[in-house]
From TrEMBL:
Major subcellular site: membrane
Naturally occurring in which organism (per UniProt): Labrys wisconsinensis
Location in or out of the cell: Cell membrane
Membrane-spanning residues: 6-27, 39-65, 71-92, 147-168, 188-206
Stated name of the protein: Threonine/homoserine/homoserine lactone efflux protein
Topology of the protein relative to the lipid bilayer: Multi-pass membrane protein
Family annotation (InterPro entries): LeuE-type (IPR001123)
Amino acid sequence: MQSLTPLLTIAGLWTVAAVTPGPNFLLTIRLAAARSRAAGLAAVAGIGVATAVWGLAGLLGVHALFAAAPWLYWALKTAGAAYLVVLGLTMLANSRRRDVAPAAAQPARGVRASAAFRLGLVTSLANPKSALSVASMFTAALPAQPSMLLGACAIVLMVAISTLWYAGLAYVFTLGVMTAGYARLRHWLDRAAGALFVALGMRLALDRA
């Protein structure tokens, strides 16, 4: 029972973090609606791996590492910000193209499962503040010296929550009504998504935390 309480706390905190719209949300629904459910799920797999990485980093005390080597945090943050900005600008550039056929009729064009996986992985890893958030969450919810089993269970729980949530999004956004709506509004939606990615990248770059 003592082990269950911190896991329930982590489940609640991570669920809130996962369902809050951000880069992972935008990437998953865009790949699913514009390409295919397989592409969306491949991105979800990448997000799941990234969640495990951040969970392990938080468990091993990444906060202390960044405090000891602030240049490392700065380098990771700068690289992540640059990635998000470039991804957003790419979306903005692609939104100006005129497709011969609607996007919904070309579900898998140009996106392999491996490429979608990498997009999900790198997009989720782009923000090193995620590691600090996980570290803070573990500090608040877990005992001072958690057992390896408890730490592993916490990470597995985080991965399961992220995977289920984003896989659900990938399923919903490949339903006929969603793909048809995306096809009609693709150029505007891609512009909005691209602008949001650029804004997120700029915000990360300018954040002094």
